Amino acid sequence: MKDQSTPLSPEQSLALISGMIRQAQGNVSSLSKYFLLWGWCIALANLSMYGLTKFTSYPHPYLVWLITIPTAIISIVYGMKENRTSAIETHLDKIAMWLWVGLFFIIPPVIFFGYKINFQINPIILLITAIPTFISGIILRFKPLLVGGICFWACSILCFLVDAQTQSLIGTLAVVAGYLIPGYLLRKLKL
After folding, report:
1. What's the pLDDT at 109?
2. Taking the model in full, what pTM does it have?
């Protein structure tokens, strides 16, 4: 059987790659909902944790993080619904999706085994979160996500240097810079 494909010229190759990037930008930018959903969820949990540890003697302030369970369920259901209705999925879409799925599978063991490091997990989670945020910025060619990834990284380093209570405030700052600001900008731009 004879191969019917013809080699692409450099211009055609560049046009194809540019088209894939534009398609990925359109697909991934529609995911601003996830940045906003998770940004608000994590910011509220961090601020609640800070408030409970600073102003009350409540013995279980970490329970505020249970808000992430319904948030995860909403994300999964919404993602499955979007996946069924998505017209085109590029290779870059798959890379972005698996980066975030990887984060979803990395965080639970960090939490579960957090007792081994006295539950000082905020800096580790921020450090891990920097990776998919930064790479999503590269895929989208969207500087606010690149800056957000760098902010997650910088805030993780700061968290290593402060007490657990202050880590909640730094975590809030990281989420605002890394998820909420880029999420609202993506939503506004609709690349």
Report:
1. 94
2. 0.82
